[in-house]
């Protein structure tokens, strides 16, 4: 149970950490100042969520590691984020579609997790839910603006959807870790979130005059530590200081 | 406008300055006063925006979660400062868009300090401590500047800048309590940023073309050299306290003056960087220009969508 709770918490934490890391690459490069502020703000929320979750994971593990050790000193296959969140920023459409798919999942996920039997996870979910509502509103509005904007923006957001939709299914990945914790009322049955997820996706796509890709092919692997080629580069950058100067206070 | 009316308006304007009553957007003001403010506020706004880049350079490599969050928050504050400074500038009838274009062509300036590269993590300490520290020296008196919207923007900005300055100094303190590598990293950052930080106060009073008029208009309250001296006096003891050495062999406490004497700034370097030949000038402008160009379709989409929505509502 301890191992499962550790892995379960890391999976949530790593999604926030890696997406926060990706978004922070935008800093100073946004299309308008207001977006620079918004993207930085979302990154900040996600890094904050990751910190709370990693602190808890470290406590569950009980081996003397802290949140920073977990964030910066694991090897590639020890990170359990979905492949979706590690995808490169691309243009603004790719960043926003990635964000929107993630937010649309996170919203019902945190709604459910705030009632988890694990009080710590429930508390983190409750706090994160407030942030996620704002993130979802923000990313949804951009999908609509881009989809129902100009010819160019519609093409770009459609291309982004083609590129990223195949990663969406992994958000619903479940294995023995989930099943063990579900029996104790800790983990969420992710299948039960699908109707809410699909409904929200369609609600936005309709206003954006967009459609999901035809291909039903799905990719996954991140939840068990198998990542895409981009991920090693992201880690090389993120871990640079901790790897180059081990065991120091900053 | 009749001549005697103009004279009346000018007299009323001067009377307000004399009584320290703020000039507001709808008040009459001399054209030159307006132009000076537009130049100064836009420079300040551009500095906030370009200033995001050298620090943004280290967000993805911040050494731990806390530092990453703090740095993100700091850079976000800077974007916010840029935003309300542009708003203050717009109250003078200037266009944000045109002003940003002027920066991209080099016609409008931003603080030269951001044309220096951030090479190590310690630079995040040095930038916060020295650059935000110098900015505060410049900006605190601007909270009492004669133009209302600018003064009010500065009150908010100064609060955040002083927080940033403390965070930067705290990074330096942590490094100086750390390993030999960390201490060397901190000293190296100070060595590289000390002189550019002193240059942030602008040319010496003898060479400053704008200072006297700005002081008469109560836009500025102190001369460049006065502010520079205040900064040196405040910063040297902070360096000594944590064991850092200021890279100036002429630096010496002058008992008689009650101030530190310090060496001569390399004015050739100053003017070269101002005129575009610093280590990162071209890169910074290219980055901002690319953000603008890459973002063009996004802004167009937002406008097109807003138009469609409006049309739908009307029909």
UniProtKB/TrEMBL annotation, chain A:
<protein>
    <submittedName>
        <fullName>Phenylacetate-CoA oxygenase subunit PaaC</fullName>
    </submittedName>
</protein>
<dbReference type="InterPro" id="IPR007814">
    <property type="entry name" value="PaaA_PaaC"/>
</dbReference>
<dbReference type="GO" id="GO:0005829">
    <property type="term" value="C:cytosol"/>
</dbReference>
<dbReference type="InterPro" id="IPR009078">
    <property type="entry name" value="Ferritin-like_SF"/>
</dbReference>
<dbReference type="Pfam" id="PF05138">
    <property type="entry name" value="PaaA_PaaC"/>
</dbReference>
<dbReference type="InterPro" id="IPR011882">
    <property type="entry name" value="PaaC"/>
</dbReference>
<dbReference type="InterPro" id="IPR052703">
    <property type="entry name" value="Aromatic_CoA_ox/epox"/>
</dbReference>
<dbReference type="GO" id="GO:0010124">
    <property type="term" value="P:phenylacetate catabolic process"/>
</dbReference>
<dbReference type="InterPro" id="IPR012347">
    <property type="entry name" value="Ferritin-like"/>
</dbReference>
TrEMBL record, chain B:
<protein>
    <submittedName>
        <fullName>1,2-phenylacetyl-CoA epoxidase subunit A</fullName>
        <ecNumber>1.14.13.149</ecNumber>
    </submittedName>
</protein>
<dbReference type="Pfam" id="PF05138">
    <property type="entry name" value="PaaA_PaaC"/>
</dbReference>
<keyword id="KW-0560">Oxidoreductase</keyword>
<dbReference type="InterPro" id="IPR012347">
    <property type="entry name" value="Ferritin-like"/>
</dbReference>
<dbReference type="InterPro" id="IPR052703">
    <property type="entry name" value="Aromatic_CoA_ox/epox"/>
</dbReference>
<dbReference type="InterPro" id="IPR011881">
    <property type="entry name" value="PaaA"/>
</dbReference>
<dbReference type="GO" id="GO:0005829">
    <property type="term" value="C:cytosol"/>
</dbReference>
<dbReference type="InterPro" id="IPR009078">
    <property type="entry name" value="Ferritin-like_SF"/>
</dbReference>
<dbReference type="InterPro" id="IPR007814">
    <property type="entry name" value="PaaA_PaaC"/>
</dbReference>
<dbReference type="GO" id="GO:0010124">
    <property type="term" value="P:phenylacetate catabolic process"/>
</dbReference>
<dbReference type="GO" id="GO:0097266">
    <property type="term" value="F:phenylacetyl-CoA 1,2-epoxidase activity"/>
</dbReference>
């Amino acid at each position: 149970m301890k191992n499962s709770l550790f892995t379960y918490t890391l999976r949530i934490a790593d999604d926030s950490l890696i997406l926060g890391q990706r978004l922070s690459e935008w800093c100073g490069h946004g299309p308008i100042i207001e977006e620079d502020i918004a993207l930085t703000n979302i990154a900040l929320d996600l890094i904050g969520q990751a910190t709370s979750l990693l602190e808890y994971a470290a406590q569950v593990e009980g081996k003397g590691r802290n949140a920073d050790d977990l964030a910066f000193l694991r090897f590639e296959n020890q990170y359990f984020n979905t492949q979706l969140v590690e995808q490169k920023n691309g243009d603004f459409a790719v960043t926003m579609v990635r964000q929107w798919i993630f937010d649309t999942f996170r919203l019902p996920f945190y709604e459910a997790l705030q009632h988890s039997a694990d009080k710590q996870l429930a508390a983190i979910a409750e706090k994160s839910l407030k942030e996620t509502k704002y993130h979802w509103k923000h990313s949804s509005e951009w999908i609509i603006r881009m989809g129902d904007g100009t010819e160019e923006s519609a093409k770009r957001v459609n291309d982004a959807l083609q590129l990223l939709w195949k990663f969406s299914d992994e958000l619903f990945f479940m294995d023995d870790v989930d099943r063990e914790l579900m029996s104790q009322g800790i983990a969420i049955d992710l299948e039960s979130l699908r109707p809410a997820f699909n409904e929200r996706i369609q609600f936005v796509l309709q206003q954006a005059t967009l459609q999901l890709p035809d291909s039903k092919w799905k990719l996954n692997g991140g939840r068990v530590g198998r990542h895409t080629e981009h991920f090693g580069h992201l880690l090389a950058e993120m871990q640079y200081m901790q790897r180059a100067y081990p065991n120091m206070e900053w | 406008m009749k001549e005697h009316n103009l004279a009346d308006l000018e007299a009323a304007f001067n009377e307000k300055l004399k009584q320290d009553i703020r000039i507001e957007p709808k008040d009459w003001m001399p054209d030159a006063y307006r132009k000076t403010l537009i130049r100064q506020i836009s420079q300040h706004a551009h500095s906030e925006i370009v200033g995001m880049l050298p620090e943004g350079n280290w967000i993805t490599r911040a050494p731990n979660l806390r530092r990453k969050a703090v740095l993100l928050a700091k850079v976000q504050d800077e974007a916010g400062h840029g935003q309300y400074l542009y708003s203050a500038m717009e109250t003078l009838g200037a266009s944000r868009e045109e002003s940003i274009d002027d920066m991209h062509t080099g016609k409008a300036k931003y603080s030269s300090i951001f044309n220096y590269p951030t090479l190590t993590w310690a630079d995040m300490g040095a930038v916060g401590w020295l650059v935000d520290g110098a900015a505060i020296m410049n900006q605190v008196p601007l909270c009492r500047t004669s133009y209302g919207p600018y003064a009010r923007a500065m009150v908010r900005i100064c609060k955040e800048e002083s927080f940033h300055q403390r965070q930067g100094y705290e990074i330096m303190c942590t490094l100086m309590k750390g390993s030999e590598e960390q201490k060397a990293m901190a000293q190296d950052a100070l060595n590289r940023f000390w002189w550019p930080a002193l240059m942030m106060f602008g040319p010496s009073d003898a060479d400053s073309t704008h200072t006297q008029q700005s002081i008469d208009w109560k836009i500025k309250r102190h001369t460049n050299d006065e502010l520079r001296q205040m900064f040196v006096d405040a910063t040297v003891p902070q360096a000594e306290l944590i064991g850092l050495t200021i890279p100036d062999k002429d630096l010496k406490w002058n008992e008689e003056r009650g101030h530190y004497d310090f060496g001569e700034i390399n004015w050739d370097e100053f003017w070269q960087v101002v005129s575009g030949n610093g280590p990162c000038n071209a890169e910074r402008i290219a980055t901002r220009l690319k953000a603008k160009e890459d973002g063009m379709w996004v802004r167009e989409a937002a406008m097109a969508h807003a138009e469609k929505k409006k049309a739908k509502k009307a029909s």
